[in-house]
Specification:
about 425 residues; alpha/beta; Aspartate Aminotransferase, domain 1; Aspartate Aminotransferase, domain 2; 2 domains; 7-stranded mixed β-sheet; 4-stranded antiparallel β-sheet; 15 strands; binds pyridoxal-5'-phosphate
Length: about 425
């Protein structure tokens, strides 16, 4: 057999294939699953998924799917999505976020990922700048897939880990596509109207210059897959609500994966200026990345009933808040051990810091992660998995797969492990 492996990979693969990186989050999650299967007591705070026992999708969606299958809705849907689904999503985007692109500006895909991939693929040439906040979810993989130039815009604890207008402005000349995500995975923080408006102004000012010079504009990809999940007193904001002129340069991504907790049902969509839709439809069609027809039928019906959705979201927010409040209360009591967190504002994540470097005599987040897993059965993901390479002790906690009682048990184990290891007085 011919030799196929080279120093830098496998000769049978393209450079892109050889450079493909496995998701770090999924690697950690797989090892946690193996521990749970062995009977070990571990709280799976790792994946951004929902356990169906804890979070159910709306009943109307399930009955709609069954109904559609029973009626024989099993053939190909149109590549852009069923017309009735595009229409109800267009109405929803207008009603909820003031994004008015009509049904021609809505294209569905099998989850947010295909439409996310399509939005990068159709705007970026090899060598173009793809800017994203850090920490953030998965952007570095898309940089690689598109042969783009990576422009990380690091957030800080002061900016609630969100990229600021000032930091974006410093790199704006190099940017062709800017992706923003709010509520942010992994930090659970959200842009305010002022923060978002300042970023839009930076983009529009640059685009005016580029227009005069006949150069391609900066495009904004706004990933709002957690938009319906917000903490009390927090409003999700869409860029067009604070800066209507940004609409011509904005592609919005959304999905039922998070908002309806249906990660496995695979329905996402993109809202964009209708004139840009035809190549997206063609790409989704070539990939065959459309959602199954029964789920499209069911979602079309559900999104035509905003009141049913709103009721579901109120209940879901409460279940998230129940989990977040236990976490905050318990982590807040561990500050003497170097534990802190950022107030969660949206999504299913909480940013927490375990500043255990000196106490454990270690240098990396990975060593702290392993200690927490092995000593307390607390499985969390370091910010390195989201592109923030500094060893600062920051981690993501995800609450989608845990009950309130599992969180309480995990916090009991954590408290006891910290006490035993660091020989402190019992906490009051
Ligand atoms: C910010 C963000 N965008 C997009 C996605 C992808 O969603 P989907 O499962 O619908 O492809 C995720 C999934 O975790 C996410 O966190």
């Amino acid at each position: 057999m011919a030799t196929v492996s080279m120093g830098e990979g496998d000769r049978r693969l393209s450079n892109m294939g050889n450079g493909m990186e496995r998701s770090r989050i999924l690697t950690i999650a797989a090892s946690v699953r193996a521990m749970i299967a062995r009977g070990e007591e571990v709280a799976p705070f790792t994946v951004g998924d929902f356990s169906p026992e804890q979070f159910e999708v709306p009943n109307e969606l399930l009955t709609g799917i069954v109904d559609a299958v029973t009626k024989g809705e099993t053939n190909y849907p149109p590549a852009a999505g069923l017309p009735e689904l595009r229409e109800s999503l267009a109405q929803w985007m207008k009603h909820k976020y003031e994004v008015d692109v009509g049904s021609d500006g809505i294209i569905v895909g099998s989850g947010a990922r295909p439409v996310l991939y399509a939005s990068f693929r159709l705007f970026l040439e090899p060598g173009d700048g793809l800017a994203h906040g850090v920490p953030a979810w998965n952007n570095h993989y898309y940089v690689h897939l598109n042969d783009a130039v990576d422009i990380p815009i690091p957030g800080t604890q002061e900016s609630r880990f969100l990229p600021t207008a000032k930091a974006i402005e410093q790199r704006i000349k190099e940017i062709r596509v800017l992706i923003l995500n709010s509520p942010l995975n992994p930090t659970g923080t959200c842009f305010t109207s002022d923060e978002l408006s300042a970023i839009c102004k930076v983009i529009l000012a640059e685009n005016r210059i580029r227009e005069n010079e006949g150069r391609k504009p900066v495009m904004l990809v706004y990933d709002q897959v957690y938009s319906t999940m917000t903490a009390e007193h927090i409003e999700h904001v869409h860029p067009v609500q604070v800066c209507p002129e940004i609409c011509d340069y904005t592609i919005t991504l959304d999905a039922i994966s998070k908002s309806l907790t249906g990660t496995g049902l695979r329905l996402g969509w993109m809202a964009l200026p209708p004139a840009l839709a035809p190549p997206v439809v063609a790409l989704i069609g070539h990939m065959g990345a459309w959602p199954a027809r029964p789920i499209q039928k069911a979602a079309a019906k559900l999104y035509a009933q905003p009141e049913v959705l709103e009721e579901y979201f109120v209940d879901l927010d409460q279940r998230i808040a129940d989990r977040m409040s236990v976490l905050q209360e318990r982590l807040g009591k561990l500050s003497e051990y170097g534990v802190s967190y950022v107030q969660p504002e949206g999504g299913i994540y909480l940013s927490t810091r375990f500043d255990l470097f000196q106490r454990l005599g270690v240098k990396t987040n990975e060593e702290i992660r392993k200690w927490l897993l092995e000593s307390a059965g607390v499985a969390i993901v370091p910010f390195q998995a989201f592109g923030l390479e500094e060893e600062t002790g920051w981690f993501r906690i995800s609450i989608g797969a845990v009950s309130v009682s599992e969180i309480i048990a995990a916090m009991d184990r954590l408290e006891s492990a910290l006490r035993t290891a660091f020989d402190c007085e019992p906490l009051s």
